Every structure is written in structure tokens, then in C-alpha cells.
């Protein structure tokens, strides 16, 4: 039989692949579709447990390093010594007073900065000149460190809380305004048209359409503004923290550094870090879980 005939008349260059039939199939292995998690796995799935594990690991590494190498306590005290200094400062109530001074000052500057940024964003969303003004001012002032304005603030407002509030507002205002305006601009045209079809105008349009759609960007800007303002506040208090015979956490760190109380300096730094972690993982985290994560806007 010729090659053409063997291939069904399709020509000598066409090869008909024979069929292979597998008579026996092994048991299919799909894997675990559903199984009960162990207690350790359930605990590890908790966000707070994982972060606490990281913090404990850093603390253990710090303690082992200072003990094993017998580091000079004046240069780098042990964690246990710094923790003891923190506890004694809290019992003495001196540190508590300074915490309240810093936090209350921060709240004034942060809320004022949020209010001003909201006004700027509303103006930028309503008029073209407002958008131009916001983009120009953001390009000018956002890269400018707030602490660089401290000498001017001291001349304008004196050596006191008002100067610290001024530089805190500067550190919040531009970061929040930029993130919020960018979030408003990224809202899809479909959502905008839905709001217009429902007859939403002006402030109702902003509250019901723009803010919910841009909430991830708004929260990111608020977190950045919070970090900038907290850092600026501590830096300003390090330069001058005394106001009417009192001061905040930055002044607590400065005073103890001048007295060579390194353990108390670390106690002040601990307090700054703990407040930052608390605000980030308790306040902002819960807001995100109840809004953008529940709405499916973030993973």
C-alpha cells in the first residue's frame, strides 16, 4: 500500500498520529479543599499576632545583642533597663503629662490641617482656578520640611504651642489635600454620571459619590499626614518644647539626653513608637476594616 493510501489519501508527507488509550487511571489528587486549621494556624492568621511576633523578635534581638556583647549602657542600654525607665517615668506621672501635652497639641494641629485641606479640595473640585491653586501650592510647599518653618513660626507666634501647631498644620495640610484631590480625580465617570442622574449636586454629590469612591486615597493621605505631623511635632519639641514651664515628649527626650539618661531617652522613644503603632493599627486599621475592606475596595 502506498504512503498516500496509508494516510487516507492525504499525501505522502502527512502522518496520521495513532491514538493512545489509557485503560487505567490513577486516583485523582485534588488536595485539601477544606480542612480544620490548627490553633497555631488560626492564631497566625490574625494580623495583630503576626505584628506582635515581629516586635517580640526585635526586642529579643536587642536584649541578646546588648547582653552578649556587654554593650556600654551609656551608649546603648539593654531593653530591660529601658523598659524599667519607662515604667518608672509612667508611675512618676511626669511622662504622662508630657504625653498629654504632645497629643493634645497634635490633635489641634491635625484637625485644623484636615479642615483646611477639605476646604482646599472642595474649592479645587468646584473651580479650575481652585485646582490650579492647589496643584501650585502643593508643588511649592509639600516638599518643604515643616521643621524648616520653625524659625519663622517662632518669630510670628512666639516660643510656645502656637508655633508647634503652625508647623504641624503645614505637615498635614498638603499631604492630605494632594491625596484627596487625586482620589477625587480618579473616580470613574460611571459613578459620576450615576450621581448626576440621581440629581446629586454640590455637597451632596461630594458626600455620596466622591468621598466614598475616593476613600482609600483619603485614608492614605490621612495616614501620611498623621505620620508627618507626629514626626514634626516631636522634632519641634526637641528644638523647643518648653511652654510655660512644661513640654511634650520631644522635650522629655531632649532633657534626658542632656542629663546623659540614655535609658530614659529610649523610654521616650518607646512612647513615641507605641503611640504611632496604636494610632496606625487601632484607629486607622479599624476604619479601613469597616469601610474600604468591607466594601471590597481593597484586599
What would a concise description of this structure say?
By secondary structure, the chain is an all-alpha fold. The protein is 70% helix and 0% strand.
CATH homologous superfamily of the domain at 82-290, by name?
MetI-like
Q: Might you state the CATH topology name of the domain at 82-290?
A: MetI-like fold
Query: Can you give the mean pLDDT?
Result: 83
The global form is flat
Strand content: under 5%
**Uncertain stretches of 5 or more adjacent residues:** 1-8
Individual helix count: 13
How many runs of DSSP E, i.e. beta strands?
0
Question: Helicity, in percent?
Answer: over 70%
CATH-scheme architecture of the domain at 82-290: Orthogonal Bundle
CATH class of the domain at 82-290: Mainly Alpha
Amino- and carboxy-terminal Cα gap: 66 Å
Work out the radius of gyration: 30 Å
Determine the structural class based on helices, strands and strand pairing: mainly alpha
Give keywords.
299 residues; mainly alpha; 13 helices; 70% helix; 0% strand; disordered N terminus
Can you describe what's shown?
This protein has a domain at 82-290: MetI-like fold (Orthogonal Bundle), CATH 1.10.3720.10. The chain is an all-alpha fold. It contains 13 helices and no strands. Helix 7 packs across helix 8 and helix 11 (215-239) packs parallel to helix 12. The termini are far apart. The protein has helices at residues 3-6, 39-44, 47-68, 79-91, 94-126, 128-141, 150-157, 161-185, 189-197, 202-213, 215-239, 249-258, 262-290. The chain is flat. Helix content is 70%, strand content 0%. The relative contact order is 0.10.
